[in-house]
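Supplementary material to the annual report.
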Amino acid sequence: MLDIIVSVLTRTIVAGTPLLLATLGEIITERAGIINLGMEGLMSTGAVTGFIVSYISGSPWLGMLAAILVCALLSAIHGFVCISLRSNQVVSGLALTMLGIGISGLWGKPYIGLPLPNRMGHLNIKGLSEIPVLGRILFSHGWYVYLSVLLGIVLWFILRHTSLGITLRSVGENPKAAESQGIAVNRVKYYAVLAGGGLAGMAGSFLSTAYSGSWNEGITAGRGWIVIALTIFALWQPGGAFLGAYLFGGIFVLQYMLQPLGISPNILSMLPYLSTLLVLLLFGLTASGKRKMNAPATLGEPYVRGER
Amino acid sequence: MYIELLPREKVSPQQNVLFMAAALIAGLLAVSVVFALNGVNPAVAIFYIFKGSFGSWYGIKETITKGMPLILIGSGLALAYKAKFWNIGAESQLLAGAIFATWTGLNWGPHLPAVVMVPLMFLSAFIGGALWGMVPAVLKIRFGINEVISTLMLNYIAAEFVKFLVVGPWKGASKGGYPYTDDLPASSILPHLSHSRISLLLLFLAVASALILGWLVYKSRFGYEIRVIGENVHAARYSGINFFRTSLLLMAVSGGMAGLAGAGELMSIHHYLSYPDSLSAGYGFTAIIVAWLARLHPSYTIIAGLFFAGIIVGGDAIQVSMGMPIAAVRVFNSIILIFLIMEDFLISHRVRVRRKNHA
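Predicted assembly:
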C-alpha cells in the first residue's frame, strides 16, 4: 500500500512538471498584461524541437535549449501582433497554437514513434534520495523536475522581492505610471512574452525527451489549454502554480490508476478536462472577488503610448 | 526620418479590398518562406494547391463539398465573435449535432419517410449543437469562466464521449468490431448530385443560413444587441440589454449551426457515426479562420468558406502529388490567419513616414 502511494506521488510530481513550467511562463506573460493562448502550440513545437535536436545531437540538454529558443522566437510573433500592432490577443494566440501544431507536424513527421536513445538523465541526490518514502517522492527525479522547482522559486523571489518584479507587475497593472517612471513598457512586455514562450518550449521538450521519450502528434494532449486555466487558478502567483500543477499532475496519474477498475478509458480520459471546468466552477462560486483583484489590471488590453 | 501612427477614422470599400488583398499576398509570401525552409518549392506547392481545388471539375466539386460545413460553422462563429464571445468549441458542437442526429436516425429512421426524417435530423442536430453551445455561455455569464477555456475543454470531453459511444454502447452490430455505429437508414441519407459528393439540399441550407445569419446580425434587434455587446460591454450593460439571455441565444445559434454541419457530414458523407477525427477534418478550427476572413460578416462566409475549402482540397492534392504532410495545410491556414489579424492594424491606423527635422 505504501509503495503504491509513494509511486503515485512520485509520478504526480513528474506529470505536474510540464504544467508547472508552462504555467510559470503564462504567469510571466500575463503579469505583463498579455494573454498568450498559444501555449498548446508552443508546447507542441517545443516537444518536436527538443526531440529532433536531442535525437540528432545526442544531447537532451541541447534539445532543451533549442526548444526554449525556438519557442521564444515563435512567441515573438504573438508579441509583434499584440504589442506592436495592438491586435486582438485572443485570436492571435489561437493562430499561434494552430501555427505551432502545424509546424510541429511538419517538422516531426519523419520522427513519429521513434524511441529517443538518450533521454534526459535522472539525478538521485546523494543521501537525500535514500530517506525512506520522502526520498523517492522528492529526490529521485530527472533534471527537469528540479529545474522547474528552481524556476518557480526564482520567479516567486523576483516577483516578490526585486525591482525587476515591480517593473513586470507595474507594466501589467498600470503601464502609464510605469512609462512615467521611465520603464520601456513595450520592451518589458516583449521580454515577458519571450520568457513565457521559452518556458512553454521547455515544458514541451520535457514531454518528448524525458516523459515519454518519443514524439507523436497530439503529445501535449490539451496541457497547453489547462495551463491557461491553471494561471487563473494560481491567482497569477508562482506558489499557486505549484499547487495547481501538482494537483493536475495527480489527475493525469489518476486516469491510469483507475483503469483496472473497469471504467471506460474514454471516460477516464475526460478527467483532466472535466476537472479543469470543475476547478474554475468552484472558483467562480467562491473566489470571484479575489480573482478580479488579482488579475493584472490591463490584461488583454493593448498599450498605446502617450494616450490619455 | 521616422514613422508616425495615426488613428484612421474611416476605411473606404476600396481600401478594405486593397488591405485584404495585401494581407493575403503577404501571407502567401510568408507561407512560401516556410515551405522553402522545408525544402519544397513554394511556387510549385501553391500552384498545385489551387490547381487541385479550383483547376478541375472534380476539384471544384470537392471544394464545394468541403465548403458547406465551413460555411455553416463559419457563419455561426462570425455571429458569436461579433459579440466578442470567443467560441472555440465548434468542433465539439459539430459532434454534439452528429450525436443527436445519429440517435434520431437510428431510432426513428426505420419508421418514417425521408420527407419527415431529413428535417427531423437537422432539427435534432441543431438542438444538440445549441445545447452544447449554451454550456459555455452559462459558465461565462453565471460563473465568470473564460469561454476560450471552457469551449476547448468541452471539445476534449465531447471527442472522448463520441469515442466512448462508438466503441461501447453504440457500436454497430453490423460493423464487424469496427468502432462505428450501424448505417443510418435510407430515409436519413441525403442524395448526391451525380458524379459528386454534393447534396443540393445541404448546399441550399448552408447558403440560406449564411444569408439569414447575415440579416440577423445587421438588421435585427438581436443582432443589434450582439453588436453592442461586442463593441462596448459597459454601454451594453447600461442600455438594458439582457446579457444572459442574449449570450445564451447567440451561443445557441452558433452551436446549432455547427450542429447542422455535423448532421450534414453524417447524412451526406459518412452515413454512420465514427471516431471524431474522421467525422470532422478540423472544420471547427478552420471555420475560425473562415469567420475572420469574412470580416465576421456571416454572409461573406460563403466566399471565405469556399476559399478555405479549396485550401483543404488542394492540400490533399499536394499530399498525394508532392508527399507533403497534412500539417502543411495547418501551417498555411494559421499563417494566413496571422496576416489577417495584422491587417486589422492597417484598417485602424494610418502609417505616415516623416522627415525628422519636420517634427
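Chain B has one domain: 41-323.
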